[in-house]
Amino acid sequence: MEKPDISVVIPTYNRVESLLKTLDLLAVQTYPCTRFEVVVVDDGSTDDTGPAVSAARAKYPYHLSCLGQRNAGPAAARNTGISAAHSDIILFIGDDILPAANLVECHIRSHKKFPGTAVLGMVEWPPDDIEITDFMRYLSPEGPHFRFLSIKDPMDCGFRRFYTSNISLGRKWFQEDLFDKEFPFAGFEDTDLGYRLERKGLKIIFDKDAIGYHRHAITLDSYLARIRLSGISGEIFKRKHPEVARVALPVNITLAKTVFFPLRSLGFIMKHLSKRLYWFSLLVASYIEGMEECMRRRDG
After folding, report:
1. What is the mean pLDDT of residues 25-46?
2. pLDDT at 259 over 80
């Protein structure tokens, strides 16, 4: 295989339907399919991800690799993808990200214009693929899940926006630094790497035209479960980088519990007064519970 211009790395776990949609849309990119590759890393899926991708491989015009590993989390899966990639530029997207037709072209164009940077693409809800609820609109694009609208300097977004749902950077940045497998879940494993690379000079630029559509119907209950796991990762980040611990929790944990735990208990009233404040109190409480769970594991 001739060396590709860019390698698209997709870690996946039990999302075969979304993954196949993503792979289908990568086949109709405006950038020549013969000039990029796709590396799927199956992180121990228990559905038919491996066989389904293998069966579909022949129909795609780009070079597709599908690697399997025991379930070890997204950090380990991305590291596997980095090792298998052949290009000098690596683009990370999620298995629930539907790439716009010009996604790959936009990333390539930005790297030619701003070499040596990381290129952050936009992540939006798909306009007509899933029902977008009020809660999902609260989460993104300017909420607890993604914060794109508050980017002040598109030429220097800061390490907190090292969003691996849609970001690319040169392989050279991985010579000494990889994703830390200590982070077992999706959450802060990307922030951690972004912080370490920023200290070595990496700047993240924002290309709003490089759009990936987040095809993932999220409910309040499903997100509360996710945010608790994020709290576990947040505590790991806080312990690892005490100098920027406020990234993981901006206020004292005791103060946060004093404020938000009582609000959570006033669910019926809070729903009618302010849904967003009610949601926020639930998320903060679940996140703190995750942090405390991590502390108990460490101290036990």
Report:
1. 97
2. no
